[in-house]
Amino acid sequence: MTDQYKPGYLDEQMRRVPMGRMGDPAELTAAVVFLASAAGAM
């Protein structure tokens, strides 16, 4: 999926990311499960 970006684009964007790395799918899954649960309700 990231093959479509010009060379160096992702490196430029990583400077803006506080963690300094791309997210892991498991991290996203955990956030979605939390937000969809009763614990994520406001």
Layout: helices, strands, pairs:
Blueprint: H1 9-14, H2 25-36
Task: Name some characteristics of this structure.
42 residues; mainly alpha; elongated
Q: Give the N-to-C terminal Cα separation.
A: 34 Å
In total, the number of domains comes to 1
Shape: elongated
In helices, the fraction of residues equals: 40-55%
Alpha-carbon Rg, integer: 15 Å
Q: Detail the poorly predicted runs.
A: none
By DSSP (H or I, 4+ residues per run), the number of helices equals 2
For the biggest sheet, the summary is: none
Secondary-structure element series: HH
Structural class: mainly alpha
Mean pLDDT: 88
Number of strands: 0
Beta-strand fraction estimate: under 5%
Oligomer: single chain
Write a compact overview of the structure shown.
This protein has 42 residues and is mainly α. Helices cover 43% and strands 0% of the residues.
Write a structural description.
With 42 residues, the protein is mainly α. It has one domain (2-40). Helix content is 43%, strand content 0%. The protein is built from 2 helices and no strands. The chain is elongated.
